[in-house]
Amino acid sequence: MFNGPFSMITETLNTKTLLRHSMVNAHCDSVCCPGMNAKALILQAFEHFRLKTCIDFRPRQSEEYYMSIRRNPGCSSYVSRFVKNGQVVSIGNRCDRLGIIEHEIMHCLGLHHEQSRYDRDDHITIIWDNIKDGLQRNFYKISQGESTTFNAPYDYLSVMHYGKNYFSKNSENTIVTKLPQYQDKIGQRLEMSPIDVYKLNRLYNCNGSISFMEHCDFTNVDVCGMSFCKKGLAEGWKRISDAAGGPYTDHTTLGKTGGYFMHASTASGQEGDSAWLETKRMSPTRKCHVQCLQFYYYHSGSQSDQLNIWIREFRDKMDSRGNLRLMDQITGEPTNDWQFHMVPLNAAKPFQVVFEVHKGNEKSSGGFSIDDINLSESECPHNIWKINNFERLLTNTDYNSYLQSPVMYSTDGYAYQVITALRETYFGVYFRLVSGDNDSTLEWPCTWRQANIIMLDQNPHIQQQMSKQITVTTDPSFSAFDNPYLVGKRIRRHGESLHVNSAYGVRSFLSLEQIRSRDFLKGGTAVFLLTMTDISSLQHKSSLPCPKQRQSAITYPNNYERGPCNKGLNTKAG
Question: Phi, psi at residue 422, to the nearest 5°?
Fold first, then answer.
């Protein structure tokens, strides 16, 4: 059960009627609905639209016009609002990839293929002689009177662009880009591009987002409206471009241009001193009280120093003090490089995120730094697998060598691993169940869980990212998803015994050229985000329950300040 190659089916073009409401009604017929893997991916695609655009989706009630997602042959959709009583978006066999699903939904929302632009001849050449007979209409231009570019530049990286040899009758190119560096990049199906997002928001005359809340890379001196204060630490939080003891560059640019980050030094002061950095107030609006905080941190202090992440919830607008809750804590050995980190939040009322650096009882020559903060009303991926020097490992390790992740756990206790197969110019990614601490109490086989493996595009702004992912869904009829103690192979790993099942995945996940083309490697580091979700309710429903937040044991610091910061105190940014 994994994503493989796909077949493109002709999309019918129509520009007479445009759906201009940012709330889209969706329906999935229980008989003709896509399979379990595709259904869960469709919900993921909806979340991507909610994060990046002003478009929201809801189950159809009694509306005349709605999007009907069905498992018809192939991947197809009309363009724009076209028919009453269920406009079909087909997500058929081998269409269950995020980028393909986004592509078809964007047709339904009103976007044509990028290579159909009336000005496309300035950017590409169509090789008509190589196109299969009868399919030339897929390459016709849409006239200027029937379409608009919204003055957006031609987007070679659009998820709406054909690949170089689509509909070829002889495996030769059907499209040649006038800028040669894009010849092998057209046709990407990672996810919608920033220009795709711009055009969609222009089409619906909006520029907001359903789930995005905040981004800050500290480029501007106002530090995104944050407040900061201190108790005892000599300097508190400062906006700087390099710090004594590290880091020596921000994470956003990694020294390519002048950038800034926030730093709180623990090199002076007494044990228990602290510095507080507080975001502006934000209000959750979605039904599920779930938020995901993502940021990068650099730890150059002592192993007893702490970076505590709090939320402060307020009863109402008149409440100035709020209720402070500790959500996560970073401590231990210094990292001496930028680390990606996620914190699941569960604010149900207006809230602030608070970053507190707490000085420990050991000597320090540095402190804590943070950069590239993103906050959204969405679920955090469950686990992070970081691989340093990934390109060097890929190109210099013996062909078909394997890297294995640590044993990870799903929220309901299943143990699994992710494996990368290094093949010099490209690599594969695989998922397998392994023996774990909870196996004797779990239900077997492991039924209808979807493993989601994302290689993070480390663009600083979450709405600009174009990450790569695959999914593997555990079908109970496959023995590979039964108890590893019963059906798995016993191996030795790090001196311990482990039972492992057969692995499922893709032989070619990304090529070396592809990972170089975006921010998949930042400072040479690859970041994989791993999630294993129970999707069993999709057998009978079209939605998933609100995510459950993991419980973690966190030690509250002694004598902590309950705040909040006084905006007039120590708020000058360096």
Answer: -85, 125
